[in-house]
Amino acid sequence: MSEPATTPSRRVALEAKLDHRFADPDLLEEALTHRSAAYVAGGRKDRRGARRSLGYERLEFLGDRVLGLLVAEMLMTTFPREAEGALARRHAELVRKETLAAVAVEIDLAEHVMLPPLEDGGARHNPSLLADVCEAIIAALYVDGGLETARRFVAGRWTDRMNASVAPPKDSKTALQEWAQGRGRPLPVYRLVKTDGPPHQPIFTVSASVEGEAEELASGASKRLAEAAAATILLARIRGAKGEAT
Predict the structure, then answer these.
(1) Considering 29, 30, 64, 216, which one is annotated as catalytic?
(2) Any bridge partners for residue 194, and if so which?
(3) Is position 135 annotated as part of the catalytic site?
(4) What residue ranges do the domains of the chain occupy?
(5) Catalytic one of 29, 60, 135, 227
(6) Domain 172-242: CATH architecture, name and number where available
(7) What is 8-163's CATH number?
């Protein structure tokens, strides 16, 4: 397994980038430990007296909500005249996995993630894993230092990203539609491919296509989410192949 991030030298380096010194170092270790390396150490307890699993998934769950709240708060303050729809598009852009992974790279989280030997190596640089760990770190900051500590970190890493675009980003389906119309092509077509899962928790797989281009598939908890994901993938592939700006 990787060297624990909570050894003194490594913890100090990471805490400097997080702008917070942890009162509970085990909490930081928990946020950095992949579930495949997680365990409950015999007799190990946190400062609240509860035994702790060292996997980051529970903290990731909390961090997603904390980040969402703080980004929403920042947007409401920065763009007081914008309508809910525009704020929602900005919010989605700022809390998406790609943004979280980029923040994780900025603070070198990959060097601190704890994985078992068989999974170590390139896996620590996986964008999805880094995004999850970044959310767990936000939760750890919140639990250890309170909302103001988490707010300080999020403001420091997200403010420039929030201010980078004067206009709110377009949703993926609108962007794909405008791309097609701008080239004289018919509107994109979305097709339900299949539905999986139990009735109370279905997963929809949808295809998105534009005349002259191969279709793309994506899945989501609703048809709307699946269509948006498929449009994002299709437009990114088209623009990449044609060398167009994203």
Answers:
(1) 64
(2) 205
(3) yes
(4) 8-163, 172-242
(5) 135
(6) 2-Layer Sandwich (3.30)
(7) 1.10.1520.10
